[in-house]
């Protein structure tokens, strides 16, 4: 099974690129973040024509997450929203079961700065995610994926010294991420298969950062330990950060040994 997670930074603006990815890779399940759609203007018809069923949690011009499932597979038991999310109206979590695996698409709050009121809210969201991961673990294998807005290790940023005192790399955030992986018995798919490799999933639009490769790895696929044993491959498709109307994130592709 091929799984993809991608922060598209507006699904309607990036729809041609999303359809390109679906046609080129034909993934079985896709987690999208920052769809920035209302429930009414999400491009359901176009995705259906491409062969995908859609589970989505939409809140208008900000945030928004979705799962696309390639037919004949079907999403089952969808859940929209993270129990315990301090601001549930922003639509940052959705989940569904596909082929016996519980898939989650999440867009973790940015946090802005360490002294910003948004930062404790980010930590509260991550705490709720850890509780939910622990609950899912009792019922099914899972994949929690998306823009987690955390670089797990210093190797996951282009220059660790440049981020000292910033969000995305702080000890509280990394500890909160560790609580999710421990509670759900989850493995970072990319790092599991590439223990020493430095690659990024996000590059600022400004100052030619993508071409200079000044980025961060903040888009993650956390897979349950049972699935980790069958991981076949995991990689970042940089081509979708290039070309016409790219997102500032590149998609992460994960091949799961599910047949």
Please tag this protein with its features.
259 residues; alpha+beta; Deoxyribonuclease I, Chain A; six-stranded mixed beta sheet; 7 helices
Descriptive overview:
The chain contains seven helices and 14 strands. The protein has 259 residues and is an alpha+beta fold. The chain has a single domain, classed as Endonuclease/exonuclease/phosphatase (Deoxyribonuclease I, Chain A). Strand 1, helix 1 and strand 2 form a beta-alpha-beta unit.
SS class: alpha+beta
How does CATH name the architecture?
4-Layer Sandwich
CATH superfamily: Endonuclease/exonuclease/phosphatase
Largest sheet: 6 strands, mixed
List the helices and strands and how they pair.
Layout lengths: L1 E6 L7 H11 L3 E5 L10 H6 L2 E6 L7 E6 L5 E5 L12 E6 L2 E7 L10 H20 L3 E7 L23 H14 L1 E3 H5 L8 E2 L5 H4 L2 E2 L2 E6 H4 L2 E6 L15 E5 L3
Parallel strand pairs: 1-2, 7-8
Antiparallel strand pairs: 1-14, 2-4, 3-4, 5-6, 6-7, 8-12, 9-12, 10-11, 13-14
Helix pairs in contact: 3-4
Gist of the model:
This protein has 259 residues and is an alpha+beta fold.
């Amino acid at each position: 099974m091929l799984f993809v997670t991608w922060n598209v930074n507006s699904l309607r603006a990036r729809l041609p690129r999303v359809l390109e990815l679906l046609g080129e890779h034909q993934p079985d399940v896709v987690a999208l973040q920052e769809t920035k759609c209302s429930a009414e203007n999400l491009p359901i018809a176009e995705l259906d024509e491409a062969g995908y069923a859609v589970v989505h949690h939409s809140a208008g011009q900000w945030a928004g997450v979705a799962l696309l499932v390639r037919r004949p597979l079907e999403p089952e038991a969808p859940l929209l929203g993270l129990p315990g999310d301090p601001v549930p109206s922003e639509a940052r979590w959705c989940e569904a079961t596909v082929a016996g695996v519980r898939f989650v698409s999440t867009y973790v709050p940015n946090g802005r700065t360490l002294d910003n009121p948004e930062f404790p809210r980010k930590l509260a969201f991550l705490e709720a995610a850890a509780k939910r991961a622990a609950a899912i673990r009792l019922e099914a294998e899972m994949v929690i994926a998306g823009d987690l807005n955390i670089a797990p290790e210093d190797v996951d940023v282009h220059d660790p010294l440049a981020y000292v005192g910033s969000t995305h790399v702080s000890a509280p955030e990394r500890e909160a991420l560790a609580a999710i992986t421990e509670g759900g018995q989850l493995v970072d798919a990319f790092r599991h298969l590439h223990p020493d490799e430095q690659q990024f999933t996000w590059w600022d639009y400004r100052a030619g950062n993508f071409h200079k490769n000044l980025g961060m790895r903040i888009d993650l696929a956390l897979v349950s330990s049972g699935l980790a044993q069958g991981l076949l491959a995991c990689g970042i498709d940089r081509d979708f950060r290039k070309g016409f109307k790219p997102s500032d994130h590149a998609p992460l592709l994960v091949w799961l040994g599910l047949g």
